[in-house]
Amino acid sequence: MASGFAGTSALADIRIGATVSETGPAAFLGDPEARTLRLLVEKINAAGGVNGEQLKLFLYDDGGDPNKARTFATRLVEDDEVQAIIGGTTTGTSMSIIPIAEEAEIPFISLAGAIEIIDPVKEWVFKTPHTDRMACEKIFADMKKQGYTKIGLISGTDGFGASMRKQCLDVVGGYGIEVVGDESYGPQDADMTPQLTNLKGKPGIQAILNPGFGQGPSIVTRNYAQLGIRLPLYQSHGVASDGFIALAGKDAAEGVRLPGTALLVAGLLPDGDPQKPVVTAYIEDYKGSHGTAPTTFGGYAHDALRIYVDAVKRAGSAEPAAVRDAIEATSGLVGTTGVVTYSPKDHLGLDLSAFRLLEIRNGSWALAE
User: Fold this and answer.
1) 10-residue block means of pLDDT along the chain (369 residues)?
2) Which Pfam families does the protein's record reference (predicted)?
């Protein structure tokens, strides 16, 4: 289902397409993305639009289904005649949108994590979240700092979990860490006790990492506590939200470490941090509209729209090729996820400094470093 939103103009000049997982198993990601896009479009239009032109948002809910995302992306291009697409809440939906955007030659800014989205670089494709490879590197850097040399993996078999597992296995050796146990679970699994029991029994194991997103990591965390496993537990950036703590339970989640964004710890950032005013303003706007704080995932949509609008301003028009070139020339744009600098060889634009290593303490987020 789609919703057209034109702000103060019935015939908007700049047509932005979006397909996100507003409902379905990835709704905890896609719902705040959809809310954020609507909120920012309204705010931008109320302030006069972009280069004097209004934005019109064509937003579809793909429910996390890659086939629906492909269908909606085609509709956005052929029927709605959009000039750019934002979305692809999940890796699977993003990968299905890519060929549509590439063939139509319009910019696509993905909101999903897998490195495959932008590696190898695709001319019309960019993204805002950190990659799963970067998450692995941030986690392993901390494990090395803690002196861990033998760890276990328990990964989801969904697109995100499988991709992050692959990336972690690819880089782990560079940190002097050995994976002594490697387990997995399906998206519908409701009990990971057998896999965790296997990992717990591995000789010399010092910590466990769970690449995954959705409900799986919450179940892993609860089962971890139920089994009385005392090893440090690391999760992925795919669960960097208050919803994860709520699902896992405050006590079970205590001490869990994961890489996340400045958005989760806005109040803990020093005044000189360049991201502080950006994340603070977004939080205030979102709370004012929805009564709750935004999530990391809403922040991905926030940054995507800001990147697009900034590029349109610099290009002087919404013509797709000119905007694509302007997006690729983005430099030093401060977002909720980090400071973005794209290049012809880098359509992510973030480095490891954009990740904050977080720890759950007393049911809330704290800086772990």
Assistant:
1) 44 86 94 98 97 96 98 98 97 96 98 92 97 95 98 94 95 98 96 98 98 93 98 94 93 97 92 95 97 94 98 97 98 97 98 94 92
2) Peripla_BP_6
- CATH 3.40.50.2300 is right for the domain spanning 2-131+276-351: yes
Whose CA is closest to 234, among 163, 137, 166, 167?
Answer: 137
Segments of 21-161 assigned E as strands = 55-61, 84-87, 108-110, 125-127, 150-156
Q: Provide the whole-model pTM.
A: 0.88
Angle (deg, nearest 10), helices 296-315 and 320-328:
110
3-state secondary structure of 115: helix
Q: Which two tokens stand for residue 355?
A: 């990740």
What does the pLDDT look like over 29-60, one tens digit per residue? Answer: 999 999 999 999 999 999 999 999 999 999 99
Contact 233, 255 (CB under 8 A): yes
The CATH classification number of 132-266+355-367 equals 3.40.50.2300
- Quote the tokens at residue 279: 């994340």
Where do the structural domains in the chain lie, given as residue ranges? 2-131+276-351, 132-266+355-367
> Tokens in use for 116?
């495959």
